């Protein structure tokens, strides 16, 4: 394609090969665009015709510039995270960019957590994790952009905290920000199709999408940044489906003796090193196969079965997966060992457990939430 072929909406260079990058236009749409002498990237097309935003990815430099912008404004920052992938949702250095602006922390994808998990506990845990990351959220909200039920409540909260100011919505990719914004657009615009405006972020080819709230202020959606250490980046779209919970997680409980191992596909492994016989409860996508073996045979079992019996990933993508790395934990109370973006195992007190996860993916512990 010619270098100077640009989207008339956002000015991005048109390309037809990378659906998740800026300027993407499917070949079929490009042909139509030539006929109508109006070439729009898919993102701008959908925005114009459906008032719907599409996720785009940004380079780190563009993202820094964008965050820098926010620090110079007097606004409310709405920071969207995935409750199932806390570390993978972190924006490094966000606290520096937010400046003195208030933060509303949104834990999204709440629909996948078991109903027996109390909402107040999730919020407490999110606050702790946010504090560790240097953030002091003014308020924490829980949402599911997917079912959209809590969007009106979120908008009430936004209204309370923004005090007439603009609202910037930030988040890394895959946290469900686009889905949530689309729900917000529906809620705010109702039947009106013409309310969304775009304006350019200086120094980038990216539009910011503005959803007007009143005469003076708007909700401004910002593009997501890629967080490399997300489980999502190591898996194909198909494999990811087996891993990302679509529905409420159903706990699976195992009575384990020391010397036993549980595999979660080929993506994670838990070795019960030491402790009394006890109940271990796994919270992973309901279709993800869990396998129990003897610890002494676990290495050989993995060698032999990864990519087949132990999947995802499937055999042809196994090479893309970083090697599993071992993290050993000693518990003094009932503890969740969380593999970010994948799920968690609740282990009893007074146990020594080794958890294995792809190198780069965070493994953390917390007091058992259920
Ligand atoms: P973005 O990259 O942050 O804009 O995220 P998307 O909105 O594109 O969503 C990323 C993935 O998460 C998609 O597979 C969505 O189906 C899924 N997703 C988005 N919102 C939710 C939610 O509220 N609940 C659940 N379970 N999945 C969601």
TrEMBL record:
CDD domains: YqeH
Origin: domain of life: Bacteria
Entries under Gene3D superfamilies matching the protein: P-loop containing nucleotide triphosphate hydrolases
Pfam hit, one: YqeH-like_C
Entry's Gene Ontology molecular function annotations: GTP binding
Signal peptide range: none
Domain called CP-type G: residue spans: 64-228
PANTHER family in alphabetical order: GENETIC INTERACTOR OF PROHIBITINS 3, MITOCHONDRIAL (PTHR46434)
The protein, known as: GTP-binding protein
Natural source organism: Weissella minor
């Amino acid at each position: 394609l010619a270098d100077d072929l640009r989207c008339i909406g956002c000015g991005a260079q048109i390309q037809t090969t990378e659906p998740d990058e800026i300027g993407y236009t499917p070949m079929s749409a490009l042909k139509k665009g030539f006929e109508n002498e109006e070439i729009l990237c898919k993102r701008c097309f959908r925005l114009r015709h459906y008032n719907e935003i599409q996720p785009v990815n940004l380079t780190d430099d563009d993202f820094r510039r964008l965050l820098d912008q926010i620090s110079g404004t007097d606004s409310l920052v709405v920071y969207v995270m995935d409750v199932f992938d806390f570390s993978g949702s972190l924006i490094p250095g966000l606290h520096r960019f937010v400046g003195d602006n208030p933060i509303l922390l949104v834990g999204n994808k709440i629909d996948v957590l078991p109903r027996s998990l109390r909402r107040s506990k999730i919020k407490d845990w999110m606050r702790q994790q946010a504090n560790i990351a240097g953030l002091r959220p003014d308020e924490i909200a829980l949402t599911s952009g997917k079912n959209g039920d809590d969007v009106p409540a979120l908008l009430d909260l936004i209204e309370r905290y923004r005090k007439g100011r603009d609202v910037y919505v930030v988040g890394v990719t895959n946290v469900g920000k686009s889905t949530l914004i689309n729900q917000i657009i529906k809620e705010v615009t109702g039947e009106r199709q013409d309310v969304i405006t775009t304006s350019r972020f200086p120094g980038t080819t990216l539009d910011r999408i503005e959803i007007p709230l009143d005469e003076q202020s708007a909700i401004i959606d910002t593009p997501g940044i890629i967080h490399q250490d997300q489980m999502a980046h190591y898996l194909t779209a198909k494999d990811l489906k087996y891993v990302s919970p679509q529905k409420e997680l159903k706990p699976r409980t195992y009575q384990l003796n020391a010397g036993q191992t549980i595999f979660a596909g080929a993506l994670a492994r838990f070795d019960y090193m030491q402790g009394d016989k006890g109940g271990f409860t796994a919270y992973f996508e309901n279709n993800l196969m869990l396998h129990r073996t003897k610890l002494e045979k676990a290495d050989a079992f993995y060698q032999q079965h990864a990519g087949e019996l132990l999947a995802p990933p499937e055999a042809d993508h196994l090479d893309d997966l970083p090697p599993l790395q071992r993290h050993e934990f000693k518990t003094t109370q009932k503890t969740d060992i969380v593999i970010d973006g994948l799920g968690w195992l609740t282990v009893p007190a007074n146990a020594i457990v080794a958890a294995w996860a792809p190198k780069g993916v965070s493994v953390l512990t917390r007091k058992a939430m259920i």
